[in-house]
Please model this.
Amino acid sequence: MILTVTPNPSLDRTYELPGLTRGTVLRATADRVDPGGKGVNVSRAVAAAGHRTVAVAPMGGPEGALLTRLLGDLGIEAAGVPIAGNTRINVTLVEPDGTLTKVNAAGPELSPAEAEDVLEAVRIHASAADWIACCGSLPRGLPPRWYAELVERSHRAGARIALDTSGAALTAALAEGPDVIKPNAQELAEAVGRPLATVGDALKAAEELRERGARSVLASLGADGQLLAEASGAYFATAPVTAVRSNVGAGDASLAGFLAAGGRGPEALAWAVAHGAAAVQLAGSLMPTPADLDPASVVTTSDVPLDRPLSEPAP
Model:
């Protein structure tokens, strides 16, 4: 079972448009609403792959009630923590060429008591979890060290922790030794304070974060592939993508694939890449099912192409 923690969940509404013109009335050709937030997306991907998952998240108002119902419809056990504020709604506008325009709401402010209630909900469910995936930005009211506290408490309970966040929250949590962190190239660059132009630069940054406490680093490098740095060595993997329809939730699908495959080694990396490649070819934030996955197309190697330029260098 994979337990996910999403401190700032959302309802994600996606509109597909024939074009995006400012200052006009736009008519969508299709629209959908999905449960959202990075940890919730990991749960959705885990459930789509046929595994059990429990989603811990603060939920409030009619939006929170709808989020709980949508999770149940997907076969996800929702461990909702009641809060006074309303769960946020995010909007994504999709153009025919795949260009995305996203509007993310700030979300509610959690009180100290509500923040502690979320930690308690994690404790209650942690004993049954193979992995705990803590994902996304922190809402208002939670200090940067909140994830560090969660990692420390979960390790005390004997649980393995995967962390997907950035900025001060990531920096604070490194000292507690998360078992896996999952930055993208930009988050890697931010964490080490320098630009990344090549895969080799990304690997050096990943190893630096391991020296600062992370036990392994699963780094998403966009269209260039994914990089895994862990105690057994470094590995790099890529997969062909026919057409990108939406990259919303693709990184979360990758993390789900990685954890469901054991969370270590080149085989888990291959499943991470297979999930990410499948996700970007689906509409909105749909998560891939086993029928969408093509792990045989993934090329994994321990001969990391250090000199390969990143197609989108991280500033």
Notes: The chain has a mean pLDDT of 95.
